[in-house]
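Narrative summary of target 7.
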Amino acid sequence: MPAQAKAAFKRVLLKLSGEALMGPQGYGISTDVLISVAKDCAEISRLGIDVAIVVGGGNIFRGVSESAKGMDRASADYVGMLATVMNAVSLQDAIEKEGVVTRVLSAIEMSQLAEPYIRRRAIRHLEKARVVIFAAGTGNPFFTTDTAAALRAMEIGADVLLKATKVDGVYDKDPRKHADARRYTQVTFTDALKNDLKVMDATAFALCRDNELPIIVFDMTKRGNIMRVVLGEPVGTTIVKDNEQTRFAEA
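Modeled conformation, tokenized:
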């Protein structure tokens, strides 16, 4: 960490996909990825930033996955919410091993594992420099953890939503299929919608756009990227309000 490191944000909401937590393996939680994410989260917390996290469950179960075929959609989504709790408790353990106090708040009550989600309680934990992990999505079926991330970010007054993925930003076309794909360094909400860039699901994206909450999409697999983002370095792609300008990365 730089000696005179100065954070660009006071409070952040980090959205971690479940798929990212499984690393190169096909299922479950990669210990190496978990430790790396925990170290990054602990480092930015020590910088004085309020850190909240929403974690997905796709590494274990998703309501729209192959394994959910034949299930009632609401039931499948509830199982997916339970998967996010498993990830949240695992992440809590890893972060606390780094010496940072952490709380898991679940949208579905399970008092032996987590505190119930109460907005004021979550904010109080953040004010006490605790990392807060939101589990079980919104607590409602048919809503993704992207939507939960956008909703919780609004509720806690986050400055930015950090979407940690396995790619280094948002492109104008699929870089795996097109060699001439260009990465955006900054794109407006309107341009992202117009070009169907699929940054997040439509409900989550609309929440962020309506409340002018910037989103930064970046590669979480590179150690130290979370720190670089919160220090304001140009990492990944930032989705900004419509009175700003869309820009591409230099070739």
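The chain has one domain: 11-248.
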